[in-house]
Design goal:
Structural class: mainly alpha
GO cellular component, one term: CCR4-NOT complex
Protein name: Cell differentiation protein rcd1
Number of helices: 22
Number of strands: 0
Pfam families: Rcd1
Bound molecules: tryptophan
InterPro entries: CNOT9
């Protein structure tokens, strides 16, 4: 493999770099001189991955033969992505690089491992996030700051989605850095975008039905944060927050956890009820939100204790089997099953 993909040393040689101390530079030059050139060690800047990580890396590398790497090298997209990753280290180029990288999220499947294993990239993301905290309270987030941080969140979402990085992402407790964004209530677009995009990262984590992810989120009390957004949030953040709660409920541990105490159960069912009443009264035709709400109710009805209580507390509009505001056939079926589980029908 040519040096073209040696992210760190190349970066440290660049004269345009402003943020590296001479000592760091020397250290890397020495490390580079010592390097007997196993390519993966160079890519990861001498960082020594844990045994499990090494395993996932070696599968990744052995699955891609040298030929594949040859092809990758010719691939101008890879070159571009690597350039942008390098540019993150330059504070003048960072904003642009973040925006370009976040645009590559869907078209470039190797982005997540490249981001995770390139030295310093995650630290840069966390630094970007931490800088924004001071603008949350009092609320002073500008649209430009919001959009810059949303690029970072988009890249975190990509790490949360990728099978090779999701578990590292969780073990590094990175979702916790987003909780302060979910705990805001300012109605401006800058804040709403920040909330929706942060929820998107959590949504990506629960999408894979991975019990490790669900467990992590539950233990770190994502549910009260989601419930607050479901109660008071705007359309999109509400929908994503409800999707996250639905995914937690669909997990067996998640359902048990929520039905374990009356306080938890009622906290969830009251918010679901508020949303149903809201949809009904405002005559809003939000089938997507409705779908998640009904799925949550159906899942709750599968727990014996919760089912008993729901019989009494199911919103009146949902007790009517002939109601017409559910349009989707699948959701109609869920609603039917719900009424059956509660012996209402
Ligand atoms: N510490 C609270 C609890 O464990 C967290 C919580 C608040 C919660 N509201 C909830 C958990 C609703 C689940 C559902 O009860």
């Amino acid at each position: 493999m040519s040096n073209q993909y040696v992210i760190v040393p190349q970066n440290y040689r660049s004269d345009s770099m402003v943020s590296i101390s001479p000592a760091d530079k020397r250290y890397f030059e020495q490390a580079q001189a010592k390097q007997k050139s196993p390519p993966q060690q160079m890519i990861f800047g001498g960082y020594s991955p844990s045994p499990s990580l090494q395993k996932s890396l070696s599968t990744q590398l052995s699955e891609q033969s040298i030929d594949d790497f040859g092809r990758m090298q010719k691939d101008s997209d890879t070159e571009l992505v690597v350039q942008y990753i390098l540019q993150l280290r330059d504070s003048d180029k960072r904003e642009q690089a973040l925006s370009e990288l976040s645009k590559k999220r869907e078209s470039f499947p190797h982005l997540a491992p490249l981001l995770w294993h390139s030295v310093g990239t995650i630290a840069i993301f966390l630094q970007e996030i931490a800088v924004v905290y001071q603008h949350l309270q009092p609320a002073q987030l500008t649209p430009a700051q919001s959009s810059r941080i949303c690029s970072v969140l988009g890249l975190l979402q990509c790490l949360a989605l990728h099978v090779q990085t999701r578990s590292c992402f969780l073990r590094a407790h990175i979702p916790l850095f987003l909780y302060p964004f979910l705990n805001t209530s300012n109605k401006s677009k800058a804040f709403e975008n920040l909330r929706v995009t942060s929820l998107g990262v959590i949504g990506a984590l629960v999408k894979g039905d991975d019990p490790e992810a669900i467990n992590f989120l539950m233990q770190t009390e994502i549910i009260p944060l989601c419930l607050r957004i479901m109660k008071k949030g705007q359309e999109l953040s509400r929908t994503v927050a409800t999707f996250i709660v639905q995914k937690i409920l669909l997990d067996d541990n998640g359902l048990n956890y929520i039905c374990q105490t009356p306080e938890r159960f009622f906290a969830v069912s009251q918010v679901l009820q508020t949303m149903i009443d809201d949809l009904h009264q405002s005559q809003k035709d939000d089938q997507r939100l409705l779908r998640h709400i009904i799925r949550c109710y159906l899942r709750l009805s599968e727990n014996q204790k919760a089912g008993e209580v729901l019989k009494k507390y199911l919103p009146q509009v949902l007790k009517d089997p002939t109601q017409s505001f559910i349009k989707d056939e699948v959701v109609k079926k869920w609603h039917n099953n719900l009424l059956q589980n509660l012996s209402i029908k």
